[in-house]
Amino acid sequence: SHMLHQMYSVGEEAVAGSHLTACTTFDEFIDSMQLRIISRTESQITFDLIKAHPSIANALRRILISEIPTVAVHSISVRENSTIFPDEYIAHRLGLIPLDADPEMLDFSGGPGTTLSFRLTARNDTSEVVSLYSDQIVWVPQAGQRDLHVRLQPGVLICKMAPGNAVDIDISAEKGIGADHAKWSPVSLCSYRLMPRIVLEKDFYEEDARELQSCFSRGVIDIVDG
Which structural domains are found in the chain, ordered by start? Predict the structure, then answer.
């Protein structure tokens, strides 16, 4: 360990608090911080937060998990459920189906016009066990909601239905935040890790280079010819 400290130094911006204390105002700190997107898909984003104190990264992580409003199934009214699954089980499954809807169009009050209504009806008239999926849930627009973009994630298994089983359920979705219930959390996983900038103070060759490489995780140090 002592030898390694002599062989390399950690960049100043990687030292916790060093960049934060160098800024004289909060605005200066925010302006100097950089966000670089590494990859982005419909369901996942990876980015680097540069020149940021770990406390800022952790605060951002906590906000993403519990403070961003989303829309999720909040209550159901069961007209019929002849499956072996209790109403509470199906309600829990419905509540965790991702719902793509703009939370700005709803209020937190949960009163008239502040909810989204859905209907789930299905009957197994076959002689085989069949699967009930989220694709079978139908949105029932209320007054003034027909132009809204509302979409439940398809392909989510709700339960299995034996021959002769039937379900008839009214579903209500409301606006909320993850701090109240996990069903309103917009992320299933949100984490961060420190990425220090390692600066070598001299060149290393042959055995010394291989020894240095072995002290780090795979991919951190590369050995090049020449």
Answer: 1-68+186-225 (3.30.1360.10), 69-177 (2.170.120.12)
CA angle 104-121-186, nearest 5°? Answer: 30
* Structure-block tokens of residue 99: 């719902």
Helix and strand numbers, DSSP H then E, in the chain: 6, 12
Partnered with residue 78 across adjacent β-strands are 169
Strand partners, 117: 140, 172
Rounded to whole angstroms, how far apart are CA atoms 67 and 28?
Answer: 25
The answer to whether 100 and 187 have CB atoms below 8 angstroms apart is: no
Residue type, position 76, single letter: I
pLDDT in tens, 25-66: 778 777 888 888 989 998 888 888 888 888 888 888 899 899
pTM: 0.69
What lies within 8 Å, CB to CB, of 200 at 6+ separation is 7, 8
Closest by CA to 209, choosing from 196, 221, 226, 197, is 221
d(CA 122, CA 164): 10
